[in-house]
Design goal:
The chain crosses the membrane at residues 6-26. It is a single chain. This protein is α/β, with parallel strands linked by helices. The chain has 2 domains: 28-120, no CATH class; 123-315, no CATH class. The chain has helices at 6-26, 31-35, 46-52, 57-73, 78-89, 96-108; strands spanning 130-132, 140-141, 144-145, 150-152, 155-156, 161-162, 166-167, 172-173, 177-178, 183-184, 188-189, 194-195, 199-200, 205-206, 210-211, 216-217, 221-222, 227-228, 232-233, 238-239, 243-244, 249-250, 253-255, 260-261, 265-266, 274-276, 281-283, 290-291, 296-298, 302-303, 308-314. Strands 1, 4, 8, 12, 16, 20, 24, 27, 29, 30 and 31 form an 11-stranded mixed beta sheet that branches. The protein has a 7-stranded parallel beta sheet with strand order 3-7-11-15-19-23-26, with no helix packed on it. The chain has a 7-stranded parallel beta sheet with strand order 5-9-13-17-21-25-28, with no helix packed on it. A hairpin with a 4-residue loop joins β30 and β31 (308-314). α3 (46-52) crosses α4, α4 runs antiparallel to α5 (78-89) and α5 runs antiparallel to α6. The longest helix has 21 residues, at 6-26.
């Protein structure tokens, strides 16, 4: 009777593993589909389904348009389309920017209330991935979870409406981002988010708590005229560039415990139930203009590496 040696078993396992690895490399454009498949729960034309998983990009793009048209007629398919849409955004390596530029208009027109194809109540929850030139200006969605997403190019959310919770936790905006006039209907989480370029939040309105704890702002940060209905926390946040809260209004508390201010700071006209800057510091060896919240002043400067810093204290 033949005996299978351990070496033969190991060789067989190695051959199978090698075949699987080679197949995955050949199919790397479909990595997201292999690892994170999205099941379409509604009735979708099998021809359309084959198209959206095709290797030819133009065929796949046609399938995306056909799927969207089906969802226009059948609301039960709409969230399935949105989920599949973000999987499709991950396809197209190494020309992902050009591929995403073709896809975004398909979804964007269906998230704007003035559009005849508007889909209310959609949730956006992509996996951690790279998104290029995101433009969701004027869009209305329910929940949005962009945790650990890297935004390449400018990201625009001006005038957007988020009816439910929002999360950008751990994300990175590699260039400028604008939320001018955006409305947050529930809590919004920007903890540990990195803002490499301008971070513009002028005239935003909130109806929940906002967290920017441990966020990093590398350039200009603008909250001019913001209206906060609940607590906003910037604990341990770092502001490397100029920051303004001019004329911002907060019905609750603005928290800056342990925050760091390296550049200009302008709180002119800002109001809140209370400002908490205990443990916050500002660099004093730079030529900057600063207007602190009422009741707060800089203490004596002390050398700290790098540079000289002073603690903010109550007057």
């Amino acid at each position: 009777m033949a005996t299978i040696t351990p070496f033969a078993v190991l060789a067989l396992i190695g051959a199978v593993a090698g075949s699987v690895a080679a197949w995955l490399l050949l199919r790397r454009d479909r990595y997201a589909e292999v690892v994170h498949p999205v099941t379409v729960r509604g009735a979708i034309d099998p021809v359309t389904e084959r198209k959206i998983f095709a290797d030819e990009r133009e065929v796949r793009l046609a399938g995306v348009h056909e799927f969207a048209a089906l969802a226009d007629r059948d609301p039960a398919l709409r969230q399935d389309f949105v989920d599949q849409f973000f999987v499709q955004l991950g396809y197209g390596w190494p020309e992902s920017a050009a591929w995403q530029a073709k896809l975004w208009p398909v979804l964007r027109m269906r998230l704007r209330r003035e559009s005849p194809e508007f889909w209310p109540g959609m949730d956006l929850h992509p996996k951690p991935m790279v998104l290029h030139e995101v433009d969701l200006r004027g869009c209305e969605v329910r929940n949005a979870f962009f945790s650990r997403v890297r935004f390449v190019g400018d990201a625009r959310f001006d005038g957007a409406v988020f009816a439910g919770p929002v999360s950008f936790e751990g994300s990175c905006f590699a260039r400028h981002v604008s939320f001018a006039g955006t409305r947050f209907g529930a809590d919004a989480d920007f903890e540990r988010t990195t803002f490499t370029g301008t971070a513009a939040f002028p005239r935003i309105t909130t109806h929940g708590q906002l967290w920017f704890d441990a966020a990093r702002f590398s350039a200009r940060t603008d909250f001019t005229g913001a209206a906060f209905s609940d607590d906003v926390s910037f604990d341990c946040a770092g502001f490397a560039g100029p920051v303004t809260f001019r004329d911002a209004r907060c019905a609750a508390d603005l928290l800056f415990g342990g925050a760091r201010f390296s550049g200009h700071a302008d709180f002119t006209g800002a109001t809140a139930a209370d400002f908490f800057l205990t443990g916050a510091r500002a660099r004093t060896d730079a030529h900057v203009r600063r207007t602190w919240p009422p009741g707060w002043v800089l203490g004596p400067p002390r050398p700290r590496k790098p540079g000289h810093w002073a603690d903010l204290t109550r007057a």
